[in-house]
Amino acid sequence: MTESMPAEPPHPAKDVTQHVGYLIKRTQAALRGAMDRVLREHGLTVPQYATLELLALHPGMSNADLARATFVTRQSGNVVLQGLQEAGLITRPATADHGRARPAHLTEEGRSRLARVQAAVYAVEERMVTAIPPERMAALLTDLDRIAAALED
User: Where do the coiled-coil regions begin and end (predicted)?
Assistant: First the structure.
């Protein structure tokens, strides 16, 4: 039997809690928790909120496009859209004009709910970004984008 050597970490770290991946996950979990708390007061989930934001910017997106953009499966995206439709926040045609895509659009109530919740969500992001010196923000955004691109297939 051969004894395997422990793998070398990709950068100096005392333990796993100092690895980049661990710190990114910790940050993501803290952000998600903070967003969950403020969105709960408005009767929304993070995927529902993200969907409303995206539809405000890009009316008519399909379930598949929204699912990709909100980091959920198509099946979960469809559940999100059904919930938003039942709440009167979006509309979708009953059937697709062509193919299977049923474009979604915000209703007046959807636009109104989004406007009410944005201030609360933006306050969470403000809390987060104030921890970064302003002169480092552009570099952080570039680095995060590079990290994501390096891991995408």
Answer: none
- Give tens-digit pLDDT for 72-124: 999 999 999 999 999 999 999 877 666 667 899 999 999 999 999 999 999 99
**28-66 pLDDT tens trace:** 999 999 999 999 999 999 999 999 999 999 999 999 999
The sign one gets for the Cα dihedral 139, 37, 71, 85 is: negative
Of 93, 118, 112, nearest to 104 by C-alpha is 93
* Torsion angles phi and psi, residue 105, rounded to 5: -140, 145
Contact 29, 23 (CB under 8 A): no
How remote is the C-alpha of 151 from its chain's centroid? Answer: 17
Q: Which helix (H) or strand (E) holds 124?
A: helix 108-129
Query: Within its chain, how far is the Cα of 83 from the centroid?
Result: 17
What does the alpha-carbon distance between residue 48 and residue 89 come to, in Å, rounded to a whole number?
A: 10
Q: Which CATH code fits 20-151?
A: 1.10.10.10
Please report, for the chain, the start and end positions of each structural domain, with discontinuous segments joined by +. Answer: 20-151
**Euclidean distance between CA atoms 64 and 109, whole angstroms:** 23
Asked whether 139 and 98 are in contact (CB, 8 A), the reply is no
